[in-house]
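> forwarded from #structure-qc
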């Protein structure tokens, strides 16, 4: 009788562990820089992603009637130590925007224009990449370097 309870308990525990692991893998998001996304474009197409980059102010286009917003972001390093070595987040964002050789990514978003969406703002964007290489944002998090001294969040390795 006691053996049946032990086996039943082990099976229930195994089922709970399986459900936790499978649901966390299904909801996992990849956090990438623009450069990393450029290198893995084909395998990341259609996946839920989180991208970090610097907003290029000249590329911002907004239609208030349809709430269609598009802008480009440019690659910034994903390592906080590297950002500090390069002079801090504000300097890294500035250098990224003025350097035309860095990888860029077009972002489209439907919704109100965020107040902090401006040149040299750090953008952390959640969404999906389509087959044409356009990133469709579902969520925008913008940081103005003059208001925040924090660097980018730690990057996740595959």
């Amino acid at each position: 009788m006691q053996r049946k309870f032990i086996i039943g308990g082990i099976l229930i525990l195994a089922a709970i562990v399986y459900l936790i692991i499978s649901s966390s893998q299904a909801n996992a998001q990849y956090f990438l820089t623009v450069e990393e996304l450029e290198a893995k474009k084909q395998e990341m197409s259609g996946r839920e992603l989180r991208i970090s980059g610097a907003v290029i102010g000249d590329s911002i286009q907004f239609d208030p009637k349809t709430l269609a917003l598009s802008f480009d972001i440019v690659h910034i390093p994903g390592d906080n130590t590297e950002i500090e070595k390069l002079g801090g987040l504000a300097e890294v964002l500035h250098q990224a925007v003025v350097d035309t050789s860095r990888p860029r990514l077009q972002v489209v978003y439907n919704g109100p224009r965020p107040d902090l969406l401006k040149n040299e703002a750090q953008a952390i964007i959640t969404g999906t990449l389509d087959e044409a290489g356009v990133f469709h944002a579902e969520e925008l998090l913008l940081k103005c370097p003059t208001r925040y001294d924090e660097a980018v969040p730690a990057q996740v390795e595959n």
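QC bot note: The CA atoms of residues 106 and 134 lie 5 Å apart. The two ends are 46 Å apart (CA to CA).
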